[in-house]
Design a protein that fits this description.
This protein is about 35% helix and about 20% strand. By secondary structure, the chain is an alpha/beta fold. Strands 1, 2, 3, 4, 13, 14, 15 and 16 form an eight-stranded mixed beta sheet that branches. It has an eight-stranded parallel beta sheet with strand order 5-6-7-8-9-10-11-12. Strand 6, helix 6 and strand 7 (about 180-190) form a beta-alpha-beta unit. The relative contact order is 0.16. It catalyses: 4-imidazolone-5-propanoate + H2O = N-formimidoyl-L-glutamate. InterPro entries: Amidohydro_3, HutI, Metal-dep_hydrolase_composite, Metal_Hydrolase. It is found in: Cytoplasm. Catalyzes the hydrolytic cleavage of the carbon-nitrogen bond in imidazolone-5-propanoate to yield N-formimidoyl-L-glutamate. It is the third step in the universal histidine degradation pathway.
C-alpha cells in the first residue's frame, strides 16, 4: 500500500515550457502556470513511483479511506536537482579567496598555475576513501535543503587513474546517501602542469585513453569540457565532446564564462544537453542554443563569489529566445564554495531577474532537461517519487527568505529520507 501527500500548494512543474508563452511576460498567473500550481493538491505514491497527481477533491479511491497514510504540508514540489557541481574534491582554497579580495583576478591565479591546479594536487594526494567520505557528508547537507538529485563532476584528477578515482568515489558514495548522485566526466577541466607545453598530447590523452576507460567502466553518463580562456579552445572542446558522444556519453560544456570563447556555438553544433555559465555568450550563440534545444545552466554564486557582478549571464535573453534555463550551485572550492541551492534561488531572482516561478522551475524541470532526464523534475504519474516539502506560507517565499532551510520533509524514491520533528504523517 502506498501513501498520500496533501499540499496546500502543489507544484507539478510541467515539461513543455513552450506552451507557457501564452501567459505573457509576468504576473502571478504566468508563474502559477510555470510551476503547474494545484491549490490543495494530492500526490499518490506507490513504491518508488508517483501513481497519481491532482486536486485533493478528485483523488482516486486508492488515495481515500482511513487506512491510507496522509502526509500534510504547505508546499510540495519535485525534489530539487543541483545539476552542476564539483562536489568531489579535497582541500580548500581560502588563501586564494584572500588574494582575490586583495585585487588579484581569478584568471591570473588560474594562468599562474593556481586555481583548479591547486585542487588537482590535493585530489591526487587524497585516498579514494577520503574522497568518498567527504562527498557523503556533502550530499547529506544538500538533501536537507530538498535536493534529491546531485550531479557531481570529476575534473580535479587530470590523470586517467585520478579521474576514475574521483568517479569511483561518486559511485561508492551513492551506496551511503539518500539522493541520486550523477557522475559527470570532466577530464578536460584544465591542462595539468605536466602537460603545459604539450596541450595537444593532453587532449589526445583525454580522447584516446580517459574517455574510453570511463565509458567502458560505466563511471559516468556525461562528458563535460571547460571551453574558455586559460582552459580549452572551441576546436579542442568540440573534438573532446564528439569523442565522448562516440562512446555514448552525453555532451555538456562549461561555456563562455570568462570570455566569448565560442562555447555556446560548440554546444549547439554537437547537440549538448547544456551549456553552463554563459556570462559572455553572444546573441548568435543564444540563438543557436535555442534552435538545438540546449539548456542554459546559470550559476549566480560564481558572480557573487568572484565579484563579477558586471558580467551576468543573460537569463532573460535565453528565456526570450526559447531556451530552458536551469540554476545550479557550481559547488567547488575556487569560485563557488557553497551548497546552498536555496540562496541560488534568491540570486536567480535578484541578479538575473527571474520570477519566483522561473527560479523554482530552473532547479526542477529545467535542471532535469539539462541532464536529459524525464523521470525526475516533475510531479506526474509514472515519474520517480522524489518530492520536497516545505513549511512556508507560499511557494514564492522559497525565493524570498534566503539563508534559511525551510524543508519539512524530503522523499527520495518514495521513501522519507529527511523530515523535521513537526513533519508527522496522519494515520
Amino acid at each position: 500500500m502506498g501513501y498520500v501527500i496533501r499540499a496546500a500548494q502543489l507544484l507539478t512543474m510541467p515539461q513543455d515550457v513552450a506552451q507557457l508563452s501564452q501567459y505573457g511576460d509576468g504576473g502571478e498567473e504566468r508563474d502559477d502556470a510555470i510551476v503547474g500550481l494545484i491549490e490543495d493538491g494530492c500526490v499518490l505514491v506507490e513504491d518508488e513511483t508517483i501513481a497519481w497527481v491532482g486536486p485533493w477533491s478528485e483523488r482516486p479511491k486508492a488515495a481515500r479511506g482511513e487506512a491510507v497514510d496522509v502526509f500534510e504540508t504547505a508546499v510540495a514540489m519535485p525534489g530539487w536537482i543541483d545539476c552542476h557541481t564539483h562536489a568531489v574534491f579535497a582541500g580548500e582554497r581560502s588563501q586564494e579567496f584572500a588574494w582575490r579580495n586583495a585585487g588579484k583576478p581569478y584568471v591570473e591565479v588560474l594562468e599562474e598555475g593556481g586555481g583548479i591546479l591547486t585542487t588537482v594536487e590535493a585530489v591526487r594526494q587524497a585516498s579514494s576513501q577520503e574522497l568518498t567520505d567527504t562527498l557523503v557528508r556533502r550530499a547529506f547537507l544538500s538533501v536537507r535543503q530538498g535536493v534529491t538529485t546531485l550531479e557531481v563532476k570529476s575534473g580535479y584528477g587530470l590523470t586517467t587513474a585520478d579521474e576514475i578515482k574521483c568517479l569511483k568515489a561518486v559511485q561508492r558514495a551513492q551506496k551511503e546517501v539518500p539522493c541520486e548522485l550523477v557522475g559527470c566526466f570532466l577530464g578536460a577541466h584544465a591542462v595539468p602542469a605536466e602537460y603545459r607545453d604539450r596541450r595537444e598530447a593532453y587532449v589526445d590523452l583525454v580522447c584516446e585513453e580517459m574517455i574510453p576507460k570511463v565509458a567502458k567502466g560505466g563511471y559516468a553518463a556525461y562528458c563535460d569540457v571547460f571551453c574558455d580562456r586559460g582552459a580549452f579552445s572551441a576546436e579542442e572542446a568540440e573534438r573532446i565532446l564528439k569523442c565522448g558522444q562516440e562512446y555514448g556519453l552525453v555532451a555538456r560544456i562549461h561555456a563562455d564564462e570568462i570570455t566569448d570563447a565560442g562555447g555556446a556555438m560548440v554546444a549547439a553544433k554537437v547537440g549538448a544537453s547544456s551549456a553552463d555559465h554563459l556570462e559572455f555568450v553572444n546573441p548568435e550563440g543564444i540563438e543557436a542554443m535555442a534552435a538545438a534545444g540546449v539548456v542554459g545552466v546559470l550559476m549566480p554564486a560564481v558572480n557573487l563569489f568572484l565579484g563579477t557582478l558586471d558580467h551576468l549571464a543573460p537569463a532573460r535573453a535565453l528565456l526570450n529566445a526559447g531556451c530552458e534555463v536551469a540554476l545550479a550551485t557550481d559547488f567547488n572550492p575556487g569560485s563557488a564554495m557553497t551548497q546552498d541551492l536555496g540562496t541560488i534561488l534568491m540570486l536567480g531572482c535578484t541578479l538575473y531577474k527571474l520570477t519566483p516561478g522561473e527560479a523554482l522551475r530552473s532547479i526542477t524541470a529545467g535542471a532535469a532537461k539539462a541532464l536529459r532526464r524525464t523521470d525526475i523534475g516533475g510531479l506526474r504519474a509514472g515519474a520517480r517519487a522524489d518530492v520536497a516539502c516545505f513549511d512556508v506560507p507560499h511557494y514564492r517565499y522559497l525565493t524570498y527568505h534566503f539563508g534559511q532551510i525551510h524543508t519539512e520533509a524530503v522523499i527520495y524514491r518514495g521513501n522519507f529520507v529527511y523530515w523535521t520533528e513537526e513533519a508527522d504523517v496522519e494515520e
